[in-house]
# Entry
Amino acid sequence: MAIRPRRSSAREARMPLSGHLVELRKRLYLAALFIVLGAVVGWFASDYLLALLRDPIYAVAETQDRVATINYNSITSAFDLKLQIAFTVGIVISSPFWLYQIWAFFVPGLTKKEKKYTLGFMFSAIPLFFLGSAAGWYVYPHIVALMTSFAPSEDTSIIEAKTYFDFVLKLVIVVGVAFVLPVFLVLFNFAGLISAQSILKSWRIAILMITLFTAIATPAADVLSMFLLAIPMIMLFFLAAGIAWLHDKRVEKKIDSVNPDEASALPPTEPLSA
# Structure
């Protein structure tokens, strides 16, 4: 008899679909507002960022003794590029605010354990993404210098501005995402989908994949940039394996601490919280 009222009240407490849509619209409006405000800041900072982007091109002109410059191939190209930089900056600097809006929309439907895992994922993935993005930003001048060096010295390097910015942006994002991948290994381990032993067994494959990725992300002849990207990613992989190993050990201790009848009653694939 005591169960029925709880089920009835839980059913009544559920938000209808229209309520979810209203809440989603509110969160999207707030996220868009923060991005636009960040884009305003990015608009005023775009000239400074463009100057930073030009530095590797100027370095090419000096070190390779050639004419190297950024080119705008249409009337609106400069405006379009400045707008693109502004919104890119807006998305980055407003990320704590629009990420919170996403969190605030989903958190009412999460259990305590799910909230714990989600917060742990966010507080580890976001710094690692920015760390990886910083690594990508660090190596891109080396890549620009190497790739332009294949042109004969008597030729002119006229680089289309938007193509150049897209190249740098994609490189920074891809390296940033690559740095987050070890967090998914830990997340899958905590969810009971993969063991630390399985992660450690695949270390050769992981190193091979990391090496291939960094070889693609950086020019083949730029060994220094390749190692600058590969070494932190390999360290993050083994760090993720170490965290997963510690988690598995704690799960084993919890299983050993219960009596045999209770342990046999547990589903074999059900992960135990740390």
